[in-house]
Design goal:
Number of domains: 4
Largest sheet: 8 strands, mixed
CATH topology of the largest domain: Rossmann fold
Helix content: 40-55%
CATH superfamily of the largest domain: Vaccinia Virus protein VP39
Radius of gyration: 24 Å
Strand content: 5-15%
Structural class: alpha/beta
Shape: globular
Distance between the termini: 67 Å
Length: 445
């Protein structure tokens, strides 16, 4: 296969594949990054173009249609992706000169189309440059759903949900936060090193680090390219994990020597963190319905030097037939809307119907998990999403249906939240990925 050296051309190829095959963005981007020879600078532009164009797709289509002489349905998918990526550069990438974005888009229009569409592309983009200050959106007060959906590029159903839950001001702030470039967090593996030791090492490698906002064993690091390639990652000195996700293991308040059940374990980030907080003493039973995904748990445990995890293939909704334990984690399957900074394609791949199906699954898993908790023990329910249906509603349902449980409390240093036993991590308030945690205690007999 001939290698592509032009990051803009490779971005359009990637965008075309995503639409044709419906694959996961990260997987397609990683594949093309491995197969083609881009310089570090071009690799950065390629990644930004793909992520940004996918993220802002609805907004970009709205802008293009405002300046196009033909309906977007009459524009071929490949040329539409040329236009989208060019408009993204013009509107959102200040470091790219507008004329460069236009010239490159015209060249790509010839590659993916013909001279006629090249002229169409040139005319549309030059008109956009001249009149971009005139772009307007539907009236905020009259139609906040359409205004926010078009301006910040989210599907209407998602905006409607957040408006009904959070209100207009909070929803606007959330939309803005979910479109920001994500920061990279790592969890220091205190089984092998300490936070000060790792920070000193990272400084020597040219990597800057700062303490996490809440969790004591999390660092915010940059540049990302050096972090993911450093040998210390391969040696298990740290694990790449957003801080909001790292809060889950702390929330379960495990102790060395305990028995812990993790019902939805793969790929093992929270499982290995629990082992770390237990000083690698005790026993963690890690369950997942997929053997291939459990292999990732085992691989991560080996790299991190964790020896107390035992993996078993198991459907988390099955009736419980093992001795109850003092700590149980349900990091439930969810819609993942809290991770949209890292995974912008999620917003276009989820539906309200899928949310309803996930809620039913989450309830089944929690009901099964309730049998796994010993009297006096803790059960943690967590998701990486931002829907009231999957989070607060499921947590309240659980307490209503399982009267032998009550809300417990989080560590004193935890981010503030709505109740003593429930926390919603909101990107625009906490500066982290969206996340939800609810901790329950089983009554003693």
């Amino acid at each position: 296969m001939k290698k592509i050296h032009n990051p803009r051309q490779l971005a359009v190829i990637t965008l075309n594949e995503l639409e044709e095959k419906g694959d996961f963005l990260r997987e397609v981007l990683d594949l093309h990054s491995r197969q083609n020879d881009l310089s570090p600078l071009d690799q950065g532009l390629y990644t930004e173009l793909v992520y940004g164009t996918v993220r802002m797709r609805r907004n970009l289509d709205y802008v293009i249609s405002s300046f196009s002489s033909r309906p977007l349905t009459k524009v071929t998918p490949a040329i539409l992706n040329v236009l989208r990526s060019a408009v993204y550069q013009i509107l959102y990438l200040e470091r790219v000169p507008a004329h460069a974005a236009v010239n490159e888009a015209v060249k790509l229009a010839r590659i993916f189309g013909h001279e006629g569409v090249a002229k169409f592309t040139n005319g549309l983009l030059r008109q956009l440059i001249r009149k971009k200050d005139t772009i307007s959106y539907p009236d905020w007060e009259r139609d906040p759903v359409l205004h926010l959906g078009l301006k910040y590029s989210f599907p209407s159903w998602m905006v409607e949900h957040w408006l009904s839950w959070l209100g207009p001001t909070e929803t606007a702030m959330l939309c803005q936060a979910l479109n920001e470039t994500p920061k990279l967090n790592i969890r220091v593996n205190t089984v092998k090193t300490s936070v000060p030791e790792l920070r000193d090492y990272l400084t020597e490698q040219g990597i800057s680090s700062a303490p996490g906002k809440f969790a004591p064993d999390v660092l915010e690091v940059s540049p990302a390219g050096l972090v993911v390639k450093d040998q210390a990652l391969a040696r298990g000195m740290y694990y790449i994990q957003d801080e909001s996700s790292a809060l889950a293991a702390h929330a379960l308040q495990v102790e060395a020597g305990q028995t812990v059940y993790d019902l939805c374990s793969a790929p093992g980030g929270k499982t290995t963190h629990l082992a770390q907080l237990m000083n690698n003493q005790g026993q963690i039973f890690a369950f997942d319905a997929s053997g291939n995904r459990l292999a990732l748990v085992e691989e991560n445990a080996r790299r991190l030097g964790i020896t107390i995890i035992e993996t078993t293939i198991r459907d988390a909704t099955e009736t419980w037939n093992l001795p109850p334990g003092p700590r149980v984690l349900v990091d439930a399957p969810c819609s993942g809307l809290g991770t949209m900074n890292h995974r912008p394609d999620i917003r276009w791949n989820k539906t309200p119907q899928e949310i309803k199906e996930l809620v039913n699954l989450q309830r089944k898993i929690l009901s099964a998990a309730s049998k796994a908790v010993a009297p006096g023990g803790l059960l943690l329910y967590s998701t990486c999403t931002l829907t009231k249906d999957e989070n607060q509603d499921v947590a309240h349902w659980f307490l209503q249906e399982h009267t032998d449980f009550s809300g417990a409390s989080f560590p004193a240093w935890f981010p503030p939240g709505e109740t003593e036993w429930m926390r919603t991590i909101l990107p625009h308030h906490h500066g982290l990925d969206g996340f939800f945690l609810a901790v329950f205690r089983k009554q003693r007999r």
